[in-house]
Specification:
Elements: H1 8-15, E1 22-31, E2 34-39, E3 52-55, E4 76-85, E5 90-94, H2 102-108, E6 115-124, E7 127-133, E8 136-141, E9 162-171, E10 176-180, H3 181-184, H4 186-189, H5 232-255
Parallel strand pairs: 3-5, 8-10
Antiparallel strand pairs: 1-2, 1-4, 2-3, 4-5, 6-7, 6-9, 7-8, 9-10
Length: 256
């Protein structure tokens, strides 16, 4: 955008907003990179379907597959204003900020060392994610899956397995929960997989390679974090991929 000269009324409206202010509007478009909202107050956007924009991480505290799992076009929403995006001339919004954070409530009633029952929801090279409460997932690192070293999470657990885990760490600030199957169920962990030998050494996946944003907005402008217990490198990679998707999606929209 060309700044105040292109749309002075819109610029003045956005510049007058304050962080934490609650704005209401209607969902007008759902893209792979986020959701556009037409705000009740203020002028229309000269290019996009709404002045308000919600990045995917700001839609919900809980894990979801697509934005359609959280909102629908035409739905009324009330969001918290995060910042004035001067590059795209829009208001960055958060829907999840207006909802209770289940992680903080979980942390209030859970102690380190406490044993919990959970279900394996996802396997990754460095461990397994286990859901221990509604909307709460924790990471069991590869070294905490069994007493003996394992090469891959699939050597000891599979998606859908019910497991007993112990809480190893609760990080409120980063909303991360670390779990241990080794401490939670020693008897089960002592049964090492027959296909592994005693020299097996756990391996870790390489950190995702950062990609430069080629979209319509500079990298690092999407606020918020991915809900759940995801490594910071994965969060950064996900946000950069969302920006690439956003640039491609908006280019297609403008060509139509």
């Amino acid at each position: 955008m060309d700044g105040p000269s292109e749309s002075p009324k819109l610029w003045a409206f956005l510049a007058a907003l304050h962080r934490g202010e609650i704005l209401s509007g209607t969902v007008t478009a759902i893209e792979r990179f986020g959701v556009f909202v037409a705000l009740d107050a203020g002028p229309d956007h000269p290019t996009f379907p709404g002045v308000g924009f919600i990045a995917l991480p700001e839609l919900s505290w809980r894990r979801f597959d697509t934005a359609y799992d959280v909102v629908q076009v035409g739905q009324r929403v009330s969001c918290e204003f995060l910042q004035f995006d001067t590059w795209n001339l829009e208001a960055r919004l958060s829907l999840r900020a207006t909802q209770p954070d289940p992680f903080q409530s979980f942390a209030d009633h859970t102690a380190v060392g406490q044993k919990l029952q959970g279900q394996v929801t996802k396997l990754v090279p460095f461990g397994a994610f286990v859901q221990v409460a509604d909307g709460i997932e924790g990471l069991v690192h590869l070294r905490e899956l069994a007493s003996m070293p394992v090469e891959a999470p699939s050597d000891v657990v599979q998606v859908g397995d019910q497991v007993t885990v112990a809480v190893a760490e609760i990080d409120r600030g980063r909303r991360r929960l670390s779990l241990s199957r080794r401490m939670g169920s020693p008897a089960a962990c002592d049964k090492s997989p027959s296909r592994l030998d005693s020299d097996s050494v756990p391996t870790q996946s390489a950190a995702p390679v950062a990609r430069a944003s080629l979209g319509r907005e500079p990298s690092g402008q999407v606020p918020g974090q991915v809900p759940g217990c995801v490594c910071s490198c994965a969060v950064a990679g996900a946000e950069q991929l969302q920006q690439l998707d956003r640039g491609a999606g908006l280019a297609q929209r403008q060509q139509r």
